[in-house]
Design goal:
alpha/beta
């Protein structure tokens, strides 16, 4: 069976839902959106506090796993990716971080022309409605709702911010605005107590359009090529093989694992990788699946003197009450991701913009919701966010159901090792400020016995986890390893683009949902040939002592 469309979008995730909305705004465009997963109508997706459940559920997430990571004691690392309407925006932590302005200037330096901060900022603004109104940095009429959840009602959130200031860092009123560096309230994509995924923000308002077709429970096998031109896709749905053809373009938005894998299944990639997997080479493009990057983090945990943490809400009765209140009112502890304060700092003097990120949580627990110990505690998630280690995604079989080989080579580069040493030492200094005196008790993890470089390195290798930000595996640029050009088009193939976090040249300092949405907003204008939004002249604050001091001031 074969059907014709103008645009075919593969993947209804953070980017794909944006594209489906924007490309179908013109009723003349027939748009097909294909998603392997199904409906997002689950309380565990829509209730923000339940974030750990969909991430660890096969129904809603690809449960990818890396091969043995050679620099992390040969551990296999969990790499879940969204497999549901909304994609990873339906399973993530809902944290809204754009990244530092210099991250996007860095993209341009890597060959992504006109993807610097001044060109990207207007698309961040276009995407969002900021709870406190628009200005030269923030938007006030976009589909994506952004706010601060429960407004930091727990006193530990503000204690963390105050401790950062006492330690010598800025307090920032808006880390997504003029000043990222420092400590302040964290922002999240939640609206009226509900996860505001791209499915809720972009796709559902577009579903009534007659020119938008959404097909779920369908796995794309390959892009169909006619010479060096993409003409459609082949996919499996309910044990039937279906071919969909396009008049204009195929757009892969399957994420940093899915998009390079589909390209390789289609015969586009490194010749040696494809031939090893038994796939005929249709177009040699060596960068496909390379340059893979991710953020790592670990939990710094402390016992709390006062019974004010979420550890007191982890019994079944408390969870039931939280869930019931959320179900009927969309308020209370169920309506937040609980990461309500944060920090961005530089790891050492000579680093121009922040490369370390903090998420503060008034509980001591794991991502899967299990308590760390009996009693009250709090933790801060800390990671070195500008890694120099690089990995890959490699197809291993012509069967689309066989997962690709994934390795990030975490901690391969010495700078990454040294960055995590600073994570330990700088975090201890912050948490030991006076602001925490009435709350802080014993250090649970790493433990005060972890002191030397060797001890810290061993702890990190055994304890660090992915922050679930895979990216950069189909990088944008103009060099020999670039997969897409600055127009997001696959180099050397007509009618084929990639639009998702895989095209980032380098990983930004922050969570990836916000920049992925921005990329899709900007790419939509490129695809449609629209006049691009005018570049912004908004200023960015950089610490005036960055060359000589690690602290902000």
């Amino acid at each position: 069976m074969s059907i014709n469309y103008d645009y075919i979008i593969v993947g209804a995730g953070s980017a794909g839902c944006v594209l489906a909305n924007r490309l179908s705004e013109d009723s003349n465009n027939q748009v097909l959106l294909i998603e392997t997963g199904g409906s997002d109508k689950s309380i565990f997706i829509q209730m923000p506090t339940a974030l750990s459940i969909p991430m660890n559920t096969e129904k809603y997430a690809w449960q990818y796993e890396t091969i043995e990571e050679p620099y992390l004691n040969n551990r296999k690392m969990h790499c879940p990716r969204g497999k549901v309407l909304g994609g990873s925006s339906s399973i993530n932590g809902m944290v809204y971080v754009r990244g530092h302005a210099r991250d996007f200037d860095e993209w341009q330096q890597h060959g992504a022309t006109n993807w610097n901060y001044s060109h990207c900022l207007p698309y961040f603004q276009k995407a969002e409605t900021w709870a406190f109104g628009g200005d030269q940095y923030r938007g006030d009429s976009g589909p994506l709702a952004v706010n601060n959840g429960n407004e930091m009602k727990n006193p530990l959130y503000k204690a963390f911010i105050n401790a950062g200031v006492e330690a010598g860092y800025f307090e920032t009123p808006d880390y997504n605005g003029k000043l990222q560096e420092g400590f302040g309230a964290m922002h999240m994509t939640i609206k009226d107590g509900v996860r505001w995924s791209t499915a809720n923000a972009y796709l559902k308002p577009a579903l009534p359009r007659q020119n938008l077709t959404v097909v779920t429970h369908a796995q794309v096998e390959k892009v169909l090529l006619e010479g060096k031109k993409a003409i459609g896709v082949r996919y499996q749905r309910h044990n039937k093989t279906i071919e969909a053809h396009c008049n204009k373009e195929v757009i892969l938005s399957a994420g940093s694992i899915g998009s390079p894998h589909i390209l390789q299944l289609s015969g586009i990639g490194n010749k040696a990788v494809l031939e090893k997997a038994g796939i005929e080479v249709k177009h040699e493009l060596n960068g496909v699946g390379e340059n893979l990057q991710d953020h790592l983090e670990f939990y710094f945990q402390f016992k709390c003197k006062q019974p004010i943490t979420l550890n007191g809400e982890l019994d079944l009765w408390s969870k039931f009450k939280i869930g019931a209140r959320w179900f009927f009112t969309k308020k209370g502890l169920g309506s937040t991701n609980h990461f309500e304060s944060c920090g961005f700092i530089r790891s050492k003097a000579g680093v121009e913009w922040p490369d370390l990120q903090y998420h503060f949580l008034p509980a001591a627990m794991r991502y899967d919701g299990r308590s760390a110990f009996d009693g009250h505690g709090f933790q801060v998630h800390i990671g070195h966010n500008k890694p120099k280690s690089r990995g890959h995604v490699h197809v291993v079989s012509a069967d689309p159901k066989v997962h690709p080989e994934i390795t990030f080579n975490y901690m391969q580069h010495q700078d990454d090792i040294e960055g995590f040493r600073q994570c330990v030492r700088l975090t201890r200094e912050i948490i030991n400020q006076n602001a925490f005196n009435e709350y802080r008790e014993d250090e649970i993890q790493p433990g005060t016995h972890i002191q030397t470089d060797e001890e810290i390195d061993a702890f990190v290798r055994s304890s660090v986890e992915s922050a679930y930000h895979p990216s950069c595996s189909c990088k944008m640029g103009t060099d020999d390893m670039a997969v897409v050009d600055p127009e997001t088009k696959i180099r050397g193939i007509d009618g084929l683009r990639v639009v998702d976090s895989s095209i980032f040249p380098t990983i930004p300092n922050g969570n990836l949902n916000a920049p992925t949405i921005m990329v899709a907003e900007r790419a939509a204008d490129l695809i449609l040939g629209n006049t691009m939004l005018p570049a912004s002249n908004a200023e960015v604050t950089i610490s005036d002592v960055w060359e000589s001091k690690q602290k902000s001031r």
